[in-house]
């Protein structure tokens, strides 16, 4: 069974990163994982080199580190359901570079970070750091914006994680098995229901569509592990239409807590992810999205 042993959560103490921290803390607690909390500050030496001594700069960074640790402590106080081993890291540099480097050097299994979900015409705009991490990270990334439905309840001291319904999107490509592995692992941990969703795109209507649905349904049944029914409820489902619309509509209708999506490797991701189904679901969907690459 899949294990998550090291989780990274970058924070800037905005409402978006605070929400991401809620998810990261809860997942770390449930998996028994170590949580790395990263805060990155921009270097100030180049700006104030002529006005500040090295000792003054060091003192400022020391204060920033202490301030960051205190803010993280306050974040963790929101969760009384159990202790999580954590490591607070404060770095100087470019945010996305620091996240990606730490993820590689610490062999992170999952990155949890917030997106700047917006309203109106800018809703498809994503924070540049989150976007770059989604494109370049070697490990899965859980993208969290302010969700319509929240599977983390910081007010619950007994069980803060209320992950009950997972939607795992599959297109039967090489991208799908890894995403299925994560979906079933989460389902086993939380005794959650998993819907395996396949969307037939541009299939028209009539007998041909029904035949395609039947074939797709059989393929969905074939990818369900034989032992899965022992620890989770698995529902195969085939819908027809635009993939991102069908995924979001189903997630909203069923009050899903999490959407899991598989994507290709980094080079293909640069071309295929943004402006595509995955990007739209991340920004417009009703719940967090776990992006898993092959």
Q: What is the structure about, briefly put?
A:
The chain has 294 residues and is α/β, with parallel strands linked by helices. The protein contains ten helices and ten strands. The chain is elongated and about 75 Å long.
Please give the structural blueprint.
Elements: E1 6-10, H1 15-31, E2 34-41, H2 45-48, H3 54-76, E3 86-92, H4 95-105, E4 110-114, H5 128-136, E5 141-144, E6 165-169, H6 176-190, E7 193-200, H7 207-223, E8 233-240, H8 243-253, E9 258-263, H9 266-272, H10 277-284, E10 289-293
Parallel strand pairs: 1-2, 1-4, 2-3, 4-5, 6-7, 6-9, 7-8, 9-10
Antiparallel strand pairs: 5-10
Helix pairs in contact: 4-5, 8-10
Comma- or semicolon-separated keywords:
alpha/beta, 294 residues
Task: Describe the protein in words.
The two termini are 17 Å apart. Helix 4 (95-105) packs parallel to helix 5 and helix 8 (243-253) packs parallel to helix 10 (277-284). This protein is α/β, with parallel strands linked by helices and 294 residues long. It contains ten helices and ten strands.
Residues in helix, %: 40-55%
| C-alpha geometry | elongated
Q: Main beta sheet: strand number and arrangement?
A: 10 strands, mixed
Report how far apart the termini are. Answer: 17 Å
Determine the structural class based on helices, strands and strand pairing. Answer: alpha/beta
List SSEs in N-to-C order: EHEHHEHEHEEHEHEHEHHE
User: Can you count the beta strands?
Assistant: 10
Low-confidence stretches: 118-125, 267-272
What fraction of the residues are assigned to beta strands by DSSP?
15-25%
Radius of gyration: 20 Å
Number of helical elements: 10
Mean pLDDT: 83
Provide the spatial order of strands within the biggest beta sheet.
3-2-1-4-5-10-9-6-7-8
């Amino acid at each position: 069974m899949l294990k998550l042993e090291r989780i990274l959560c970058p924070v800037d103490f905005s409402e978006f990163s605070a929400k991401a921290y809620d998810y990261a803390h809860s997942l770390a607690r449930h998996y028994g994982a170590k949580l790395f909390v990263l805060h990155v500050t921009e270097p100030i030496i180049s700006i104030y080199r002529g006005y500040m001594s090295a000792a003054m700069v060091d003192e400022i960074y020391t204060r920033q580190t202490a301030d960051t640790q205190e803010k993280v402590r306050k974040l963790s106080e929101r969760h009384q359901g159990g202790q999580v081993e954590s490591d607070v890291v404060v770095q100087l540099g470019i945010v996305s570079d620091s996240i990606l480097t730490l993820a590689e050097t610490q062999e992170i299994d999952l990155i949890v970070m917030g997106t700047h979900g917006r309203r109106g015409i800018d809703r498809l705009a994503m924070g540049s750091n989150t976007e770059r991490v989604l494109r370049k990270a070697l490990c899965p990334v859980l993208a969290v914006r302010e969700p319509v439905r929240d599977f983390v309840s910081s007010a619950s001291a007994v069980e803060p994680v209320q992950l009950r319904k997972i939607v795992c999107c599959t297109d039967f490509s090489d991208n799908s098995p890894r995403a299925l592995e994560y979906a079933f692992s989460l389902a086993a941990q939380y005794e959650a229901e998993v819907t395996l969703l396949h969307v037939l795109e541009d299939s028209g209507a009539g007998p041909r569509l029904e035949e395609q649905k039947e074939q797709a349904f059989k393929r969905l049944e074939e990818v369900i592990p034989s032992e899965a029914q022992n620890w989770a409820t698995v529902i195969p489902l085939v819908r027809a239409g635009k993939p991102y619309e069908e995924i979001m509509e189903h997630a909203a209708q069923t009050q899903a807590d999490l959407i899991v999506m598989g994507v290709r490797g980094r080079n293909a991701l640069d071309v295929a992810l943004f402006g595509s189904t995955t990007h739209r679901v991340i920004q417009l969907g009703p719940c967090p999205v776990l992006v898993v690459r092959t």
